[in-house]
């Protein structure tokens, strides 16, 4: 925080200067004045221009996504796919970067909230100080009225019984002197009351509190939604779920609008705060000069002269009160020889009580508004809370909201390149394998006409069961031996695919080739 002194010292931060140096152009692309003037139409357009930049970027991203997905839908996807390890690693990298940016953004959100709260606290403290000063002024005004009226009249009536005319006249002169001093005090206090700070900042506090409440809630909600969205993408990667990745990508494209809207709002606010922090004194004086005298206002804001604005008047009032106390004591001493203590006891007691309250009230008034230190310190706190803490928080939000938006963009792109692979990997895990129809060694399609890909059927053996059994046996052995020879050579027969597999069919063929007892003729 800033070191408070009698001279206003802003704790400047380079970030406010950075935002202040942004080019200020209106929607006609003409340069405008960078001075903070929210009532100026051209200046508001310059802020709206920067507010529109992230929104336009978001729209361009949506158009790019539309073109990207249209191209992916129209292009023919190759059957042979490689593993999606690289794209999955890229998604994980951008997930980590996005989560880190979300954490930094939440930190910036809390910093901005702390700065706004410090600003509100400073304004509220200023209001309370000024209100207490006005209460003290009112109390002093009442004391002065009592001293000039009721108390002085009661003391005047009490000393009438003094027979010595000279002493009575002297006491009357002292009472008149007390009334004169109190009248001067009342005049000085009235000038403080008339020239003091009559600024109603309650509306500023209420509006700031209301806007800050919705700003904080909106930012936390959007960031929390992105945390949940990134968790959904991570779950889809772990489960290798195509559906989860598609759903999370669609949600990312929708939520992207909220993140870039936040970025645009914080960018415009940061540029505005940078312009304000370049010269906050001029803006405050221009806004309050209609309610407070310029000399008084500049005395509190610049605090170049510690004795201003009301130190001299209040010190004079303290001197007059002290003189009134001395005059009252002299009056009491003059009445001592005449033994009228019982008559003057009550009015003297009331006057002394009021005169004792006077220095205490004046000392409190001198501390609060008599010199510029207290109000100036609160003003410095308010300025630094906006130009230091809040600007840093807003800068964090601008930067890391944009980083989250870009990470979400790359996550959607890499997820679109990943989910086709995840779909085929899940099919392979269920028992489906990719098939190349041009492979000559694949089994033939059903109904396996002409025994394609199978061992020859024993139909000839069945048909020739009543014929020469030796021919059947010899042919069967010859077929088996030829098959064994082919296997031993280790070379597949040209244009001969492997036999198709049917449960139990091969054993049925094997047993049908084996010689049967009734088919073997007795040896001669």
Gist of the model:
74% of the residues lie in helices and 0% in strands. The chain has helices at 14-20, 41-74, 85-158, 165-195, 202-239, 242-278, 280-288, 294-302, 311-335, 341-370, 373-429, 459-463, 469-489, 505-513.
What does this structure look like?
The chain is mainly α and 524 residues long. The N and C termini lie far apart (124 Å). The N terminus is likely disordered.
Jot down its keywords.
524 residues; mainly alpha; 14 helices; 0% strand; rod-shaped; disordered N terminus
Task: Give the helix/strand layout.
Blueprint: H1 14-20, H2 41-74, H3 85-158, H4 165-195, H5 202-239, H6 242-278, H7 280-288, H8 294-302, H9 311-335, H10 341-370, H11 373-429, H12 459-463, H13 469-489, H14 505-513
Specify the number of helices.
14
- What is the number of E strands? 0
Mean pLDDT: 78
Low-confidence stretches: 1-6, 425-429, 448-481, 483-495
Radius of gyration: 49 Å
Biggest pleated sheet? none
